[in-house]
Amino acid sequence: MDEGLSSLWATTGIANFTFADLAMIAVGVVLLYLAIRKRFEPLLLVPIGFGAILSNIPVAGIGGPDGLLGYVSAVGIDTGAFPLLIFLGVGALTDFGALIANPKTILLGAAAQVGIFLTLLGALLLNGVPGFDFSLADAAAIGIIGGADGPTAIFLASQLAPDLLGAIAVAAYSYMALVPIIQPPIMRALTTERERRIAMQQLRPVSRLERILFPLIVLAVVVAFLPTAAPLIGMLTFGNLLRECGVVERLNRAAQNELMNIVTILLGLAVGSKLASEQFLNLETLGILALGAVAFSIGTAAGVLMGKLMCWATRGRINPLIGAAGVSAVPMAARVVNRVGLEADDSNHLLMHAMGPNVAGVIGSAVVAGVLLALVGG
Prior knowledge:
mainly alpha
């Protein structure tokens, strides 16, 4: 009888919980709190947070290689399939009209990617601190956090640094969620009141032909010069073509809704499975979280500074605030730009102008990921 009770006790969660398990479950609860109470990226933080809780339950093994979340992770993240399918949905949801109408704003999206390369260097410099040992591939995967593009960060990490994927994914989505908190102080510090009040001219109408040709031209350029970026850009442009061609509305709706929702759930749970205590609780994770904050801040600042340069070059026709939308957090960064602009002048609506650099940032981060894959992954 005593032996039976002992065996039963040995299979309970209470007998098997470690402090590390409880700490990571607490992290999962915090993510759920941020998603539900604060509404920070709830569509992803809810499944990521719950996945973190499930993967740290002892004995159950649901997050291990032979558990459900392990299978989902192997199928969708290790292969890179889930981020690519997310990009298909993003393409179907995104209106590139603002970028087509004002193509020079692609410079703002490009400038915001500076944070990626500076953070790559920062990760390598951290190797001088005891406890850190980032390879060039690790540093490249960490740097992409600066693009504020979760699917791209997951895709690149799965290719270059799969052991760091959990920390990179959490950092990327956490800073995407914190866009409304992190960006405004940087924007205000780098611009004057007069610059923030600049009203921009209404964008020209964009024809249906332009909208159809745009994804095809973007894909052709990428295929010609940077085929390593073709998986991400290809799915993004395919999704956008579904949206704009006007003859496959059922497929467009499926990409925007059913497919996007299913993949988002599975991607979040799979990322949560990477938050097992033995993988996450280490000094390198803290370094990644710190570098992610630096990357995102530098990307925002670089976009605003490019906006100031373009403001000067156009003699005040471009509001520098829209440069902050060069990070790829669509459409949250554009909404933040609009809000800060309205604070300076309640009649100054910048949302559509900010969408140009915002969607350019999506393309830019995918292109940078392709560059890093070509230089480091090869």
